[in-house]
Design a protein that fits this description.
Structural class: alpha/beta
Mean pLDDT: 91
Radius of gyration: 13 Å
Order of helices and strands: EHEHEHEHEH
Strand order of the largest sheet: 2-1-3-4-5
Number of helices: 5
Strand content: 15-25%
Largest sheet: 5 strands, parallel
Helix content: 40-55%
Shape: globular
Length: about 130
């Protein structure tokens, strides 16, 4: 079973990701701000984390950096979610330790492609 954390302060985005990934073989966790995301990640050790760049408390970039410094979470796959599509924002995300960068609004199909690429041995329900 794959564990996925969705950290975003926009309920519509959380619901879109949840709806796209919902399946008995996927455990979905949610956080509404950066501090909660850090707490949930440390408690549940997710395989994949979706982080909104602009969240209350800690930003997604700050959360990403802290997760990468935690030996128990350093190997988790991290996808930054943001409305900023500039190359400079992508570079900042990579520097912070993100594996992927997904620009809002995004296609559920693109979301599934990213999940498949980051969790190749993960959920078998994902269409190929």
């Amino acid at each position: 079973m794959a564990t996925v954390l969705i950290a975003d302060d926009e309920p519509v985005i959380v619901e879109l990701v949840r709806f796209t990934l919902e399946h008995p073989s996927v455990r979905l966790l949610e956080a509404r701000n950066g501090l909660e995301a850090l707490q949930v990640a440390r408690e549940h050790l997710p395989d994949l984390i979706f982080l909104d760049v602009h969240m209350p408390g800690l930003t997604g970039m700050e959360v990403c950096q802290r997760l990468r410094r935690d030996p128990r979470l350093a190997g988790a796959c991290i996808v930054m979610l943001t409305a900023a599509g500039q190359e400079s924002a992508r570079l900042l995300a990579r520097t912070a330790g993100a594996d992927e960068y997904l620009t809002k609004p995004f296609s559920p199909l693109r979301l599934l492609e990213i999940v498949r690429s980051l969790l190749p041995g993960g959920p078998t329900w994902l269409p190929r």
